[in-house]
Amino acid sequence: MKVAVVGCGYVGLVSGIGLASIGHEVVGIEADQGRRDRISAGSPPFYEPGLRELLRSELERGSFRVSGELRLTAEADVVLLAVQTPAGADGAIDLSYLAGAASAVSDAFAADPKRQRVVAVRSTVVPGTVDGVLAPIFGPEVAVASNPEFLREGTAVQDFLHPDRVVVGCRETWGREALAELYAPFGASLFLTPPATAELAKYTSNAFLATLVSFSNEIAHVCESLPQADVEDVLGILHADRRLSSSSETGEGRPEILSYLKAGCGFGGSCLPKDLSALIAAGELHGHDLSLLRAVRTVNEGQAARVVASARDALGGLGRTRVAVLGVAFKAGTDDLRASPGLRIVDECLEQGASVVIYDPLVSDRALDEYTERGSVETADTLEAALAGADACIITTNAPEIAALGELLEGGGYPELVVVDGRRVLDADRFDDETQLAVGRARVTPLADHAPLH
Ligand SMILES: NC(=O)c1ccc[n+]([C@@H]2O[C@H](COP(=O)([O-])OP(=O)(O)OC[C@H]3O[C@@H](n4cnc5c(N)ncnc54)[C@H](O)[C@@H]3O)[C@@H](O)[C@H]2O)c1
Q: Is 30 in the pocket of ligand 1 (CB under 6 A)?
């Protein structure tokens, strides 16, 4: 099929070259000239495992090309909209990029107005967007669908090429059939629904993941006041529940969902925080107070400060100290800094008077210019360089290069360094409890010093 993808960011670029790789003819439409130049030179504008190789092979085969010309969407059978849908100042979704792109596509269709086409929204949008905002922009010969994407950064290419579900929320039969055909080679479970169901299903998935993370962090808070409890053990026992793992009797095949039932620095990235806020705001608009989800957000917003407080308490204050923040991307395997817990931790350290050195193996120095130009922040190329002269270090992502800290500590090279394991990547049983701290694990102090928990 002939496909146009509007917006060549994480979702659009991966979708575009992924669809090209299964035999479709794809043009990616991208507004940003710098991004276009990099893509057409075979160099993705962001890091994603396997993306560069796939992009280069599809460019070479001629099955994928990139352009800034929205009028090219008129040649496509299916147009995918994959532009950003950020949170506005009040937390509600900002649909201006999406509505702008849809209007431009509608104008392009005017060249051949009788042709039946499908416009599918890959961006995450609140329920009612397709029916209430987008469908009215097009004429009746255009089927507008919600077709949310579930890929995760860090495994985006694999997720796209091996989807667990394809969701098509579309009223018109021809629209459903065209999208079913587009994704048929993947052989994934296909859900055909009204648009609002598809739209809400995406938010439901992200709100559920966010809830698991904040739930785990609340249990961690309790553990931190119980000297003999460790959240890793507590949640490990939860993980063994056979209702969470069909194969738990054999101990094999850990479901990936369990990685969200883990304490840490909180969730971040371009999706979970903004989607949670958008869903809360959409609920309010319909007269629902989504109090559980508001609590999930509140726990998350406080988590970075809690992690930094561990370092502060161990050092007796952060003024004039040097803190190494190990990881600033929102998770391992990506260089995406959007809503990153690591950057919240950097900000918190700076506010408390520390100077900060950042080490993240995937994040370029340029991406951190805004921080380093402010002073009090520098970057390091290696873990050892980050630790040189540091009073404390805080682990904020589970990248293997950062987990290597365990070996350095075991070598005994940093006897005075306060280590805060904000991701639970180190082996806590080998900790020196006075200087090595972890989310969800109390420093060892006599039981009598702690009030019993009733
Ligand atoms: N990043 C993820 O992991 C992920 C996963 C699932 C869903 N989503 C959702 O997908 C959507 C896109 O997310 P993303 O991370 O790919 O965003 P992104 O910011 O990386 O990419 C959006 C791209 O669209 C381009 N663009 C904006 N308006 C345009 C226009 N009129 N014409 C052409 N190009 C235009 C921008 O320049 C940008 O390159 C969001 O709604 C997001 O919530 C993201």
A: yes
